[in-house]
Structures are given as C-alpha cells and as structure tokens.
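Handout, tutorial session.
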Amino acid sequence: MITTPVKASPPMREVGSLSWISILFFSAFHLIALIGAPLFFSWSALGVAIALHWLCGSLGICLGYHRLLTHRGLRVPKFLEYTFAVCGALALQGGPIFWVAGHRMHHLHTEDVNKDPYSARRGFWWSHMLWLLYTDADWFKYDEYKQFAPELARDPFYRWLNKNFLLLQLALGAVLYLMGGWSFVVYGIFVRAVTLWHSTWLINSASHMRGYRTFDADDNSRNLWWAALLTYGEGWHNNHHAHPNVAKAGLKWWEVDVTWWAIWTLSKLGLAKRIVHPPA
C-alpha cells in the first residue's frame, strides 16, 4: 500500500500585493468567453476552438513547453522546437522562459509553501489560479526566474518570444477574423484560452489533491483520470513526478496519453530522438 508522505510545512511568507493588471486581464477574458460563447456560437467556431485547444494545449504546452523544453524528455530539430514553443506561447500561459522556469521551481521545491509558485499546500484555489494574481519577484521578475531556465535565456529567439508572446494573439485574432468573423475570434481566442487555462491549472490543483498513487513520490502528486483526458495526458501526475524526465506520462495501457501519441508519431517520422523512456 502506497501512503501519502507527510512534510512539515514552514511558515508561509508574504507573496506580494495583488496585481490589478492580472486581475483585469483574466476577468476580461472570462467575461468575454462567458458572454460571447452563446451570442457567437456556430459549429465551425466551436471546431476552431477545439482545434486550437489541441494545437496550443497538447503540442504547445504539454509537448513543447513541458516535456520538451522543461524536462528535455526528447530532442527534436531546432525548427520544430521553435514551432512547438510558438504554439505554447499562443496558449497565453506566459513566455517559454517564464513557464519553464516556474515549472522547474515547482519540481525542485514541490509543495513548499514558499518556493513552489503554485504550491498545493496553500490551498486549491491558490494552486489553481490565485498565484497568478499576486506579485512576487521570484516568480514574475525576469532577472529572478531566468536562472531556472538559463539555456533558454541564452537563446535570442526565446528571449524575444518570452517578451512578446502577447503579440501573437493579435496576429492570430486577425487571421481568425478573416476566416470567420467575430465568432471565430471569440471562440478561437477567448473560449479556447479560458478552457485551456483551467485544464492546465487542474494539474497544479486537483492532481495534487485527488486520484491514485502508483509511485511513492515525495509529494502529494496523484494520477487523476479525468484531468488526464482534459490535458492530453498530463493528469497522470504521480507518474510524472516519480519520473519527471520521462517523455511518456501514461504508463499503464489504459492511461490515455494523447501527447505521447504525438511524440511516438514524431519518432516514427525520424523527428523525435533521444526519447527518455520509463525505467524497466
């Protein structure tokens, strides 16, 4: 029987003041998505949202930002690495240096209330999204967090993308408007972004509180099947924390890992090499 490890929690430090810019930004996106979804619904717009959710979520965040750039669970040609990074930047979850650095902090200090940016020990809503609404130098100031992703910070392309990722939404919005008008913009930008945010955030929150544990990892990470379905395989979180550099998150035959299917396809095409496989 695998038991949940118990860690002594140090006193919580202050995390800074509320960022009203962040609050207004996230509030605006949620309001537009909630109000605009019924007003601008069409099946084609919904299809655009689903396609972009997969492109930005599975290929961008899960494969690009997470398994490739953060953990180096595989290697791909540089042009393809940059392409996945752009898809990740389109997800509106921050630039690549910010995202990778924050996730490496999470793994280095998992659930530490002071060093893990989205520590689940601060509560569900903190790990889910509240951490994004506060100012903290260690997590949000470039000169502080770049030390956790030094190889990306040395790359001019990643520095540019980290600084200008918001501009990509303008270009995407223009393309969507030309393709299908405001319905495509509302669904392809706002509905897609909000649903992808909460899908990703569930890994930080729910997957550290609910589910089963296959490995006796030194934290409270858990495998949560419905979170895995919503995040293209990232919900097999206990597997991942036990072997963070492994490219495959779903280890049992029934642990569906859509992102791994993409990596497997790339390997068959000769585009993914040095793939880190689970230990025997």
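The second record follows below. Compare its token runs with those of the first.
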Amino acid sequence: MILDGKRILITGGTGSLGKVLVRRILSNVLGTPAKVIVFSRDEAKQHEMRVEYQNGKSVTDEVIYRNFQNVLEFRIGDVLNYDDVCSALRDVDIVANAAALKQVPTCEYFPLQAVRTNCLGPANIVRAIRENQYPIETVVGISTDKACKPINVMGMTKAIQERIFLSANVLIPGTRFLCVRYGNVLASRGSVIPLFHEQMKSGGPITITVGDMTRFLLSIEEAVDTVFAALRHGRAGDIFVPIIPSATVMNIAKALIGKRGIAIRTIGIRPGEKMHEIMISEEESYRTVRRGNYYVIQCMLPEVRTEEVSDSEAGREFSSGDHVVSLEQTEALLRKHRLMVEDLAQQRGELLR
C-alpha cells in the first residue's frame, strides 16, 4: 500500500478537489498515512473542514492546540511564501499541489495573480526541495485541459506549472515529479452545475454560453482516482489524462431541467473560454501511451522520458468535441454521479419546491 506510513502534504487542501482527496486518503484505500497536512491560506475554510472532521461538534481550544498531534493537520501558509513552503515540506514524503487560481475570467482580469499562484507557487516547491535537499518521494501537480493549446491566462499558467514540475526531474532525480490533467470537475466550486442549480432554485432561466460548447464529464471522485493512478503507476515526467466522455452544455442544462418548465437563455462565450476542451494535443499524441483507463503523455525531455512510443495510442488530438454523448446518456451520467437537482438537495437536506 503506497501511502502506508507516509506524510502527505496537500496545498490548496480546502478546495473542492483537496477536500475529497483528503477524505479518500483518510479512508486508507491506499494504505494508512502517518500524517495528512492541509496547507492553505484561508483560516475560515480550514476551520470549517476541521469541524467537519470533528463530526460537526464545536471546535474547542483543546482540539486546535492538538493540531500537530492529529493525523489530519491544518497549516496556514501561502505557496507564494518561500519560508512557508520550506516549513510545510520538511519531513513530507508526498506532495499534491492543488493550490491554484482557476477561474478563467478572473485570471483574464488579474493575470499577474494567476502567474504568481499557478507558476511561482510550484517554483517555490521545486526550489525548496532542491535547495534544502528534502528527501521527498513524489510531487503531483494538478493541471487542467486548459494547459493544452492554451488560449487563456489560466491555461497558460497551468502549462508553465506542468513544465516547472516535469523539468524538475532533471535537476532533482531523487524526487518523482509528475502531473494529472483533466477538464472541469462536475459540481466543483465555480463549475457550471452549481450555477445551474442556483438558477433553477430561483425559477430560471438557466444561462448557457453556447449550446454546442462541449465539456468532459468528470466527477470529483474520478479526479481523485486520476491522482491515485498517477501515484500508483506514474513515472517521472508523466502526465495522466483520464479517458472520459463529454456532453454539450445544452444537453447538460436539459438533463438537469428534466420536465421542469425552466427556460434556457444563451449569453455567449465568456472571456478566455474554449468551445471544446482539449486534453491531448496532436503534437503530444505522438508521445502518448494508454495505461488502463488513462492516457499517459510522456515527458518531451529525453533526459526524463523512460520509454519510447513507436505508435501513438491516443492516435490524434483528444478533444471533448470528438466524444459527445447523447442527452439520454448525459442524464444517465449525471444520475450516476448523483448530480441531479434532487440528489444535491437531498445531500444538503433541502426541500424541493
């Protein structure tokens, strides 16, 4: 079991992915960790998460002061602060970097902030490991489809994050650096499904960008599965990409509405958005292999790449526009992942109108 006795640091651990990653790690599915450290700068979110793990009870001073004695440890800090990063990385075995500025329009309006968090943060992690010779086994960078053929600031900065981590394998051969890349996670904070749910609660209309726009259908549990697959089977310099279906934005909206009399209004593409998500470019496909339910993009650096690809197993660009499912299949997938309105209401204890 690869996580038995390991000390794991999750930057941005109070985000949508980080919270589920923590829960899954603490379920001991990959072994019993010695420590799971949630590293972030938002004390309110850390407080909420701590209370959640105390079964909803009030957090007493005693619990807070025992923070460093618990398996689940909360640590305030910022990936932009080198001293904070050094302190957090000391005595850690595995790092998952989920700290990010990820909202596309936000990054367009504040590009420098995106560069700082999405590029300089990862650079601090690499620098800390190298300069302090920390014996860290693995660093997994959480990336995005937008890093592939990027047209927006968010994707550009995430593409640089990939390069920062993957190139670190050359200068720090004792640590395995790799990445996972996937599209928008269904029902994660800031994604389209929570927005649709809120619009439906107020009677609509549901607003979509362009009806033919496509998005991969990936649940947050599948996103964590991708991280676990990389930890289990990844080699230095790999980028793991889940092989998943996609749907049009229009069909996602229709599936959620069902028989409710709620209107759909088209408002146009937001700043920096793509019509179709691309997980693997045509150029990357020539160094891509398939491992189970994942495509794995080999590192372009010859010093890092461990196997040659004679024939591309991806074959061509891997785009959401090429793997579109029907309305009925879209609804079935949303039901499978319990993302219909009634499912989310039940989870929150709400009463439907």
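Points raised in discussion: The longest helix spans residues 111-132.
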